[in-house]
Amino acid sequence: MTAHWRNPVGTLLGVFVVGVAVLVALLLIRTYTLAETKRVWLDKGALEAELTQEEREQLLEALKGAIRIPTVSFSETEQNNTALAEFGQYIRKAFPLVFSSSLIQHEVVGGYSHLFTVRGSDNNLQPYMLLAHFDVVPATPEGWEVPPFSGEEHNGFIYGRGTIDDKNCVIGILQALEFLLKRGYKPRRSFYIGFGHDEEISGNYGAMKIVETLQSRGIRLSYLLDEGFAVLDGVIHGTRRPVALIGTTEKGQITLNLSVEKPPGHSSMPPRQTSIGILSEAMSRLEKNPMPNMFGNGPESSTFEDLAGEFVFPLNIVMANLWLFSPIVSRIMEQTPSGNAFVRTTTALSIFNAGIKSNVIPPIARAIVNFRLHPAHTVEEVLNIVRNTIMDEQVVLSVVKAFDPLPVSPYDEENFGYQTLKRTIHHVYSAAPVAPGVCVGNTDSRHFVNLTDSIYRFSPIVMKPEDLSRIHGLNERISKEGLEAIVQFYYQLIQNSDSEKVPGPHHIPEEL
Ligand SMILES: *[C@@H]1O[C@H](CO)[C@@H](O)[C@H](O)[C@H]1NC(C)=O
Ligand SMILES: *[C@@H]1O[C@H](CO)[C@@H](O)[C@H](O)[C@H]1NC(C)=O
Ligand SMILES: *[C@@H]1O[C@H](CO)[C@@H](O)[C@H](O)[C@H]1NC(C)=O
Ligand SMILES: [Zn+2]
């Protein structure tokens, strides 16, 4: 004791060294146990589609033909209805077995959307559902290597609007089913396929009518798969190989209308502040005071923990120990727009209107702000923060549209949908690690929350960093191998979904 008193610095140093050693041990233990508890599906999975040369060409042509039909959603209220109808005729011709099979019932829903019911042999198994959409955002030829609706091939890629969002999935699902039927496949578990025609403008007439139809029949789904994340190759900084993210939730949204009304007047005798000044100040306060960083309060931390073992040293230790490092990680993430979207509710000032004439004090100024809600926020909470930030009674707020973040779908080791997806991803994408993720955009799947708690958002495509800007951007494209992998994925997934429950690690699936 006394010796220690005499040398307090030495004691402190000793305590510090022991402390650091314990901490390092804890960090390492967590790093390696986290990496080990994740299941890797080693089973061979279901039968692969051994495509003939002729079938490969058929698949290519099927996608190219789909791209050439300009199923554009121009605005909230305007779509190319001729093209939407033509698309329906097109798939009937391109996939004759799907449309003639006695196992399959086809319906047109909401004017142009499609619903297929594929009858399985075992009524005790709860059906699942595959969802995709065939409307696309507009594209003009400027800046494209080939015209966006030509469906032309260039350097081994098929270019065109819809090649990754989302006609690739529509054609992939139909082609996989067509090939399965051709090989005599009969499903055990029933399933539904839904193709929405207005996803890019909210899905109010497509997906929502499909939901109404299923609900009126009392249907519950074991799981639902829609577009969303992908196999990310080099997209997540510091990962050593491609990793697959499955979206288990989506951010919520608020579109908020702000307006300021003041008596009009002449610009020769302006008031101290006009409607423009008042509204600009409010807007500026919103931008200068971002919503709180909420990293670690939502499922986004599972993304990093599940992938911890995939990061290069020392990021692997950091990610496995977010209990300690999340303040640092969250600060680093908020530096980029995409990382920032992950850690907080984002605030985007998107429309600003005021003024009519240079010598008139404008009577009204209006603006629209779009918020995307972090999974741990609610619409009510965000609106409260907005009111407290603006703190000005002259600014009138009205909500144009709002919905809470989507419920988080389960992703535990026993969950049938998640594990079936994981198993299929492991098979098709060289055992790529799989983790849950938060989608920052919205999909048609959000309309299905009353039909199942297991909604997953994953497109079976590989995305590299340079591909991200192609979504809704220039030179959207898919490689020929990428397209075949999509078909393989759905071909496997449909067969894997015939299992009764999550099979054990050494399960050998039945032959067809
Ligand atoms: C709408 O689609 C049809 C083909 O279905 C096409 O001929 C027409 O040019 C398209 N209209 C517009 C405005 O893109
Ligand atoms: C926003 O509010 C103003 C004033 O109340 C109204 O005139 C305008 O139509 C609103 N805009 C939207 C998109 O709701
Ligand atoms: C789900 O059901 C609730 C309660 O009936 C309803 O209020 C809600 O609008 C439904 N959600 C969707 C997306 O259909
Ligand atoms: Zn899409």
Automatic annotation (TrEMBL):
Peptidase M20 dimerisation domain boundaries: 249-393
Any one GO molecular function term: aminoacylase activity
Task of the protein: Secreted enzyme that regulates the endogenous N-fatty acyl amino acid (NAAs) tissue and circulating levels by functioning as a bidirectional NAA synthase/hydrolase. It condenses free fatty acids and free amino acids to generate NAAs and bidirectionally catalyzes the reverse hydrolysis reaction. Some of these NAAs stimulate oxidative metabolism via mitochondrial uncoupling, increasing energy expenditure in a UPC1-independent manner. Thereby, this secreted protein may indirectly regulate whole body energy expenditure.
Cofactor dependency: Zn(2+)
Domain of life: Eukaryota
A biological-process GO annotation: proteolysis
Record-stated family: Belongs to the peptidase M20A family.
Enzymatic reactions: N-(9Z-octadecenoyl)-L-lysine + H2O = L-lysine + (9Z)-octadecenoate; N-(9Z-octadecenoyl)-L-glutamine + H2O = L-glutamine + (9Z)-octadecenoate; an N-acyl-L-amino acid + H2O = an L-alpha-amino acid + a carboxylate; N-octadecanoyl-L-phenylalanine + H2O = octadecanoate + L-phenylalanine
Binding residues annotated for Zn(2+) 1, in chain numbering: H133, D165, E227
Cofactor: how bound: Binds 2 Zn(2+) ions per subunit.
PANTHER family on file: N-FATTY-ACYL-AMINO ACID SYNTHASE/HYDROLASE PM20D1, N-FATTY-ACYL-AMINO ACID SYNTHASE_HYDROLASE PM20D1
InterPro entries: Bact_exopeptidase_dim_dom (IPR036264), Pept_M20A (IPR047177), Peptidase_M20 (IPR002933), Peptidase_M20_dimer (IPR011650)
Chain residues that bind Zn(2+) 2: D165, E200, H472
Keywords attached to this entry: Hydrolase, Membrane, Metal-binding, Protease, Transmembrane, Transmembrane helix, Zinc
GO CC term (a single one): extracellular region
Active site residues according to the UniProt entry: D135, E199 (proton acceptor)
Segments forming a coiled coil: none
Organism per entry: Pelobates cultripes (Western spadefoot toad)
Pfam family, one: M20_dimer
Pathway linked to the protein: Lipid metabolism; fatty acid metabolism; Amino-acid metabolism
Protein name: N-fatty-acyl-amino acid synthase hydrolase PM20D1
TM annotation in the entry: 12-29
